[in-house]
């Protein structure tokens, strides 16, 4: 019950009503005590009138008058003269004196609380103003225990009434919360559950019906979110279908272009001047097309396996990449250098790390070759207590502005003419799979610097 909204409202309502009743209970008990004592003063004053009517009254009559007034003594002050009107022996000394002529609210409350927690009977003196100008002062002595019993009876009645009011109020609020809040909220939850089972079904989108403004705002926001999500899911499904089709086309086209590459090898050996002049352009075009197909297929592999983390020697991997790129550079004046400790090992997937470095170095090499000028590519590795860092620096022309704006977005603009930009996207995805990050640190007309950072956290090797 305490886990439900209506149950908590019920409990809080009872608590708050009871607190409010406590704030009412204490002053009302103090007021009841004051009225009780004033009534005793009035009854004592009435009893003293018998003495004024007859100066000599019998002891039996005096005792009866005091017993009816529930006091031991009655003292009147008139014309600055203090007169003992009625009297009887006191069973014990007077323990406390209460003056009701002009008490403060705090004094009345404190006196009432002390009376409630009284453990034994005491004789008290009560002073007040006589009614109907019966003198200057009236003073009585009386037992305090009957006052306590009257206060307890009155207090129990107040508590029972408060409990009844609390239960009735809480029940009404419980029903109101059920109707106005809980049922509409359950309706929203039901809509959300139905939508979660079939988010592509537009019929499951909620229609705002709540009359409470806040709930209606929530329903309208949920409706907007569900509408956008349904559209996004449909678009995602279409893109997935399109991606599958593109992957199949790229696969078949790559096979076709690979066969075309074999024929270009023979065309290049032709003695025809026109063929010799056009063959290199044809070869370059086919090569770019093959590379685009391969990178598209690599990007489309959503089932890319998680990295198999082992200790790998980074120097060996970099050496393999440099050897491959030196062959690709051919006669172009591109120098490769490395600054890597021979014994440095990283916790990584060796094959995926090779692909990351290969993509970055290949991009740097192609950027320098496009300028037709000499250049240099440097690979540096460092480490500290938190991470390993690989820095790839080139002296190329820098990344174009469009490539910088869409650096890690596929098909948004490559670093060179005819490029797809997939190399950096694939490299960044592989690095993220290792828990690291790929950053562009600098790019301008003097060259470009990329950094791969892999964390050393949770090393269990």
TrEMBL record:
<dbReference type="InterPro" id="IPR003594">
    <property type="entry name" value="HATPase_dom"/>
</dbReference>
<protein>
    <recommendedName>
        <fullName>histidine kinase</fullName>
        <ecNumber>2.7.13.3</ecNumber>
    </recommendedName>
</protein>
<dbReference type="InterPro" id="IPR050428">
    <property type="entry name" value="TCS_sensor_his_kinase"/>
</dbReference>
<feature type="transmembrane region" description="Helical">
    <location>
        <begin position="9"/>
        <end position="30"/>
    </location>
</feature>
<dbReference type="InterPro" id="IPR004358">
    <property type="entry name" value="Sig_transdc_His_kin-like_C"/>
</dbReference>
<dbReference type="GO" id="GO:0016020">
    <property type="term" value="C:membrane"/>
</dbReference>
<keyword id="KW-0418">Kinase</keyword>
<dbReference type="Pfam" id="PF02518">
    <property type="entry name" value="HATPase_c"/>
</dbReference>
<feature type="domain" description="Histidine kinase">
    <location>
        <begin position="248"/>
        <end position="458"/>
    </location>
</feature>
<feature type="transmembrane region" description="Helical">
    <location>
        <begin position="154"/>
        <end position="182"/>
    </location>
</feature>
<keyword id="KW-0472">Membrane</keyword>
<dbReference type="Pfam" id="PF00512">
    <property type="entry name" value="HisKA"/>
</dbReference>
<dbReference type="GO" id="GO:0000155">
    <property type="term" value="F:phosphorelay sensor kinase activity"/>
</dbReference>
<keyword id="KW-0597">Phosphoprotein</keyword>
<dbReference type="InterPro" id="IPR005467">
    <property type="entry name" value="His_kinase_dom"/>
</dbReference>
<keyword id="KW-0812">Transmembrane</keyword>
<dbReference type="InterPro" id="IPR036097">
    <property type="entry name" value="HisK_dim/P_sf"/>
</dbReference>
<dbReference type="InterPro" id="IPR003661">
    <property type="entry name" value="HisK_dim/P_dom"/>
</dbReference>
<keyword id="KW-0808">Transferase</keyword>
<dbReference type="InterPro" id="IPR036890">
    <property type="entry name" value="HATPase_C_sf"/>
</dbReference>
<keyword id="KW-1133">Transmembrane helix</keyword>
């Amino acid at each position: 019950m305490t886990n439900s909204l209506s149950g908590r409202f019920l409990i809080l309502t009872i608590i708050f009503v009871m607190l409010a009743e406590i704030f009412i209970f204490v002053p009302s008990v103090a007021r009841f005590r004051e009225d009780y004592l004033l009534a005793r003063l009035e009854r004592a004053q009435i009893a003293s009138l018998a003495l004024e009517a007859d100066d000599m009254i019998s002891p039996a009559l005096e005792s009866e008058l005091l017993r009816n007034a529930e006091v031991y003594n009655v003292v009147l002050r008139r014309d600055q003269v203090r007169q003992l009107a009625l009297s009887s022996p006191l069973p014990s000394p007077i323990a406390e004196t209460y003056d009701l002529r002009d008490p403060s609210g705090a004094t009345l409350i404190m006196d009432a609380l002390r009376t409630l927690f009284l453990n034994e009977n005491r004789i008290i003196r009560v002073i007040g103003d006589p009614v109907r100008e019966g003198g200057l002062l009236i003073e009585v002595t009386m037992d305090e225990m009957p006052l306590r019993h009257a206060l307890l009876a009155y207090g129990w009645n107040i508590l029972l009434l408060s409990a009844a009011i609390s239960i009735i109020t809480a029940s009404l609020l419980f029903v109101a919360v059920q109707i106005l809040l809980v049922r509409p909220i359950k309706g929203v939850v039901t809509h959300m559950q139905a939508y979660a089972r079939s988010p592509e079904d537009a019929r499951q989108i909620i229609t705002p019906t709540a009359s409470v403004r806040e709930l209606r705002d929530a329903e309208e926001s949920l409706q907007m979110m569900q509408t956008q999500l349904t559209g996004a899911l449909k678009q995602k499904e279409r893109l997935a279908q399109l991606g599958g089709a593109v992957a199949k086309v790229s696969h078949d086209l790559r096979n076709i272009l690979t066969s075309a590459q074999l024929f270009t090898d023979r065309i290049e050996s032709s003695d025809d001047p026109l063929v010799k002049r056009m063959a290199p352009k044809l070869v370059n075009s086919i090569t770019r097309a093959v590379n685009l197909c391969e990178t598209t297929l690599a990007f489309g592999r959503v089932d890319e396996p998680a990295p198999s983390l082992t200790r790998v020697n980074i120097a060996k991997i970099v050496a393999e990449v440099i050897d491959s790129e030196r062959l690709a550079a051919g006669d172009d004046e591109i120098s490769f250098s490395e600054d890597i400790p021979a014994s440095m090992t990283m916790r990584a997937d060796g094959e995926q790390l090779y692909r990351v470095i290969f993509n970055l170095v290949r991009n740097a090499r192609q950027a320098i070759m496009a300028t037709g000028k000499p250049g240099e590519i440097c690979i540096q590795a460092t480490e500290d207590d938190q991470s390993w860092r690989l820095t790839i620096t080139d002296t190329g022309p820098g990344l174009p502005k469009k490539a910088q704006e869409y650096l890690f977005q596929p098909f948004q603009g490559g670093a060179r003419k005819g490029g797809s930009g997939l190399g950096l996207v694939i490299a960044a995805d592989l690095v993220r799979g290792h828990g690291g990050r790929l950053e562009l640190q600098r790019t301008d007309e003097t060259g470009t610097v990329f950094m791969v950072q892999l964390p050393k956290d949770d090393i269990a090797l």
